[in-house]
Amino acid sequence: MDHTAHPWIARLRWYWILQLAGWLCILLFVLATYSWALHMKGVALTTAWSAGTGLLLSHAWRWLFKRQGWHAPRIRWQMFAVPALVLSPLQAASVTLGIKLIQNSWPGTYGYLPMALIFWALVFVSWTVFYLMVKAIGRAARFEAETLRLEVSAKDAELRALQAQVNPHFFFNSLNSVRGLMYEDRDAAAQMIDQLASLMRYALQSGQSDTVPLAAELEAVQAYLAIEQIRFEERLRASLHVEAGVETVRVPPMSLQTLVENAVKYGVESSVTGSDITITARREAGCVRIEIANTGALRQFSNSTQVGLNNARKRLSLAVGRGASLELAETGGWVRATLTLPEAA
User: Fold this and answer.
1) What phi and psi, each to the nearest 5 degrees, are found at residue 200?
2) DSSP class of 264
3) pTM for this predicted structure
4) Which residues contact 114 (CB under 8 A, 6 or more apart)?
5) What is the tally of helices (H) and strands (E) in the chain?
6) 92 and 205 assigned to the same domain
7) Which helix (H) or strand (E) element contains residue 278?
8) Pairing assessment for the beta strands 212-213 and 250-251 based on DSSP bridges
9) In this structure, are residues 241 and 281 in contact, taking their beta carbons and an 8 Å threshold?
10) Does residue 330 fall inside a structural domain?
């Protein structure tokens, strides 16, 4: 039940509402059955007495139910023996007592007793069946809610685990770059450490969220490219083209950085002349498409396990859901990683 949308419904005491409604229906049924005698003294009041004592007996039966722990799905013979063999005679005796107290008379004959016992046995057995059905529905609803909660928790845990795989991999590579540069240009190494510190701050902060705005992710990508620009110099030629208005679309944190890192590794690092890298974000066919492209050939990926790409796909599916995709293809001498997001993302 949605407690946020219907908080007043959640606060209702459904047991008492159903209990009172049920015994009111029984009262009306008995009144209709004995409508020919309602003009007689005390008949209507005796009927109300029988409904009231029936309500009290059924409530006591519920208390025994809970005390015995009979709310489990398993059916026991006592659940139907008690209403038929105990509650029914007690209710018949109560009705007889009501006739004596209210109408000041005893029944002239007890010929009515067998039918009364059968009627009240049916009433209390039906009450028990209905009560079991309501409890079963409640258990099913709680089970469904718990299953949903566990699914959400599992999804969140998987997403966090995937994100945890990305950050150490990236920082390990970056620290290797810093180490190599320190022997060549200490000032450049210091500048790289500053950029790395900014990236680390972003990674730690964004790791608390499933998604981040594209603008924030692009800032991290630019910091990463600045680090690699120091390392590769003119071999890395990067450009960024972002259509106005798409900066607010939400993406998994560090997802673009993973794709750009692949473009640097397999485009720039593996080529003596380096590579052009272009990052484009635009609206297209009701979606937002983000493309990271580098000059080169897709066959260069054959020795890679593509763990980063598979990780990015899983994170994208978990964080954004249906309508999002990540494709890798080679066209016209360019390797293109295309991230497609629904407009609502």
Assistant:
1) -65, -40
2) I
3) 0.51
4) none
5) 10, 7
6) no
7) strand 275-284
8) antiparallel
9) yes
10) yes
pLDDT digits (tens, 9 = 90+) for 28-65: 988 888 788 777 777 888 888 888 999 999 988 888 88
Task: For 126-155, write each residue's pLDDT tens digit.
Answer: 988 888 888 888 778 777 777 767 666 666
Alpha-carbon dihedral sign for residues 78, 80, 85, 91: positive
* Helical spans, DSSP H, in 207-341: 214-232, 255-263, 307-320
Whether residue 279 lies inside any domain: the answer is yes
Hey, how many other C-beta atoms are within 10 angstroms of the C-beta on 196? 20
pLDDT above 80 (res 305): no
Give the count of domains, the chain: 2
Q: For residue 37, how many C-alpha atoms fall within 13 Å in the half-sphere facing its CB?
A: 12
Q: Does 24 lie in the same domain as 137? A: yes
Q: Cα(91)–Cα(309) distance, rounded to whole angstroms?
A: 72
Judgement on whether residues 313 and 224 belong to the same structural domain of the protein: yes
Contacts of 264 (CB under 8 A, 6+ apart): 225, 228, 232, 236, 275, 277, 294
Q: Are 97 and 223 members of one domain?
A: no
Query: Has residue 205 been placed in a domain?
Result: yes
Residue 35 lies in a domain: yes
Q: What is the domain range of residue 63?
A: 7-148
